[in-house]
């Protein structure tokens, strides 16, 4: 993992077309965001037939993603989907299983 990875921040208020343009320009390996926002972006890209760079992983936190949303990103786009469950007070509480079957919890 790079010490200082390059990052691109796109506002939640940005139109989907702008998000797609920025993702295509930046070509990230990882996209991170809120579950509902990511799901909306990928559903819109699929529905409109937009060409968008496909990262290796989509990470989400802050809320749950629907199973249809995870399935769309995993199966239709071929992108791994990983969830983080955390809180400001305790940092990482758990993380989504690579098999997509729930969470692995940090015992400490």
Q: In a nutshell, what does this entry contain?
A:
With 108 residues, this protein is of the alpha/beta class. 32% of the residues lie in helices and 25% in strands.
Oligomer: single chain
Class derived from helix and strand content: alpha/beta
Largest sheet: 5 strands, mixed
Q: Count of DSSP helices?
A: 3
Give, in order, the helices and strands.
Answer: HEHEHEEE
Shape, per Cα inertia axes: globular
Per DSSP, what share of the residues sits in E-state strands of 2 or more residues? 25-35%
Strand order, main sheet: write it out.
1-2-3-4-5
Task: Kindly provide the radius of gyration, computed on alpha-carbon positions and rounded to a whole number of angstroms.
Answer: 14 Å
Can you give the mean pLDDT? Answer: 86
Describe this structure in words.
With 108 residues, the protein is α/β, with parallel strands linked by helices. Helices cover 32% and strands 25% of the residues. The chain has 3 helices and 5 strands, in the order H-E-H-E-H-E-E-E. It has a 5-stranded mixed beta sheet with strand order 1-2-3-4-5. Helix 2 links the parallel strand 1 (30-34) and strand 2. Helix 2 crosses helix 3 (67-76). The model has no long low-confidence stretch (mean pLDDT 86).
Sum up the structure in keywords:
3 helices; alpha/beta; 108 residues; 5-stranded mixed beta sheet
Task: Give the topology, please.
Layout: H1 16-26, E1 30-34, H2 35-48, E2 57-61, H3 67-76, E3 80-87, E4 91-96, E5 103-105
Parallel strand pairs: 1-2, 2-3
Antiparallel strand pairs: 3-4, 4-5
Helix pairs in contact: 2-3
């Amino acid at each position: 993992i790079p010490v200082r990875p390059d990052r691109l921040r796109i506002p939640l208020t940005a139109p989907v077309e702008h998000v797609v343009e920025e993702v295509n320009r930046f070509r990230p390996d990882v996209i991170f965001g809120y579950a509902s926002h990511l799901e909306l972006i990928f559903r819109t890209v699929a529905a409109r037939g937009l060409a968008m760079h496909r990262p290796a992983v989509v990470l989400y936190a802050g809320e749950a993603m629907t199973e249809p949303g995870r399935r769309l990103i995993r199966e239709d786009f071929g992108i791994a989907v990983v969830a983080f469950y955390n809180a400001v007070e305790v940092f990482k509480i758990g993380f989504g299983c690579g098999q997509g079957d729930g969470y692995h919890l940090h015992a400490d």
